[in-house]
Specification:
alpha/beta, Rossmann fold, three-stranded mixed β-sheet, 13 strands, globular
Length: 308
């Protein structure tokens, strides 16, 4: 099977390429210079020339809470445009299998946890990442519409919980929480700081899965695509407080300073835990513990930044 992976240079894409099952398939992994997903005609031409049997859409403009607040236009417009371009071009090219990677941020901010797939568009979105969420909702719904109009098109959406791991971004302004905290705490240790701040009271709960586990799920899903639900949450089924993540990371890094709460900072949603009922029924579960995943991620950072 020939599979196009958009966003192959990102964290999810790189973990897909590192997975042992990557050798089973012919993977098309164009970079931005080879395929500009924001250019409709370029996407159409690429699909016509290469004729993949399946598309995995993992590309996107991603970032943490600071980036989402600072650049809502880019997070909405670029993600929306990429999703619409790749989906419509794939359908028009007659590609019958499409795996759309979405995000649990498209669930309503005040929805009852755990978050079931049926809650999409059932309430107001979290304002701090609304632009990104709207784009993800649009692609998810478009997959449903394409399948509804012609059920020979299996266009399905995977909704991962928060991710971290190898090939993550370690940039204070654009990182998601875990890589940002690993970098922050490792810098604090290097500088012998007596304490670091935690945004908010640290009681908000988050579910973070190791990106290598998502790659494992994706290959499992490729092999069982007909049986996969239209929309499926992929995560752990349990969460931790922000304080607990900071504490575990401090242990792994070896930082013994104080953790101080900055109550003036935004915290986003108080909880974002996915309902894994459909995931369990589909027959897959994660295998990497939080401690193991954090150790691998910290080791990756040390390999990339020699001064850590």
């Amino acid at each position: 099977m020939k599979i196009l992976i958009t966003g192959s240079g990102g964290m999810v894409g790189q973990n897909l390429l590192e997975h042992s099952n990557s050798k089973v398939y012919e993977l098309l992994t164009p970079n931005r210079q080879e395929l500009n997903l924001l250019d409709t005609s370029e996407v159409k031409a690429y699909l016509s020339k290469n004729q993949p049997d399946m598309v995995i859409h993992a590309a996107g403009v991603v970032g943490g809470i600071q980036a989402n607040i600072a650049e809502p236009v880019r997070f909405l417009v670029d993600n929306m445009q990429m999703g619409l371009n790749v989906l419509t071009a794939s359908k028009n090219a007659g590609i019958e299998r499409f795996m759309n990677l979405s995000s649990s941020c498209m669930y309503p901010r005040n929805a009852k946890n755990p978050l079931a797939e049926e809650l999409i568009l059932k309430g107001e979105l979290e304002p701090t990442n609304e632009g990104y969420a709207l784009a993800k909702v649009a692609s998810t719904r478009l997959c449903e519409y394409i399948h509804r109009e012609d059920n020979s098109f299996l266009y399905k959406t995977v909704i991962p919980c928060n991710l971290y791991g190898r090939h993550d971004k370690f940039d204070p302004k654009h990182s998601h929480m875990i890589p940002a905290v690993i970098l922050k705490i490792s810098e604090a240790k290097r500088q012998n700081l007596k304490g670091i701040d935690i945004w908010g009271d640290g009681l908000a709960r988050r579910e973070f899965m190791y990106a290598g586990d998502l790659a494992d799920f994706i290959y499992y899903a490729i092999q069982n695509f007909e049986l996969m639900p239209q929309n499926i949450n992929v995560g752990l089924g349990h969460d931790h407080t922000i304080n607990e993540y900071y504490t575990e990371i401090a242990k792994i890094v070896g930082f013994e300073g104080e953790l101080v709460h900055d109550l003036s900072k935004p915290i986003g949603m108080k909880q974002k835990l996915i309902d894994d009922s459909k995931l369990k029924a589909f027959g897959w579960q994660h295998s990497t513990s939080l401690q193991e995943g954090l150790k691998k991620t910290y080791q990756y950072l040390k390999e990339q930044k020699k001064d850590v």
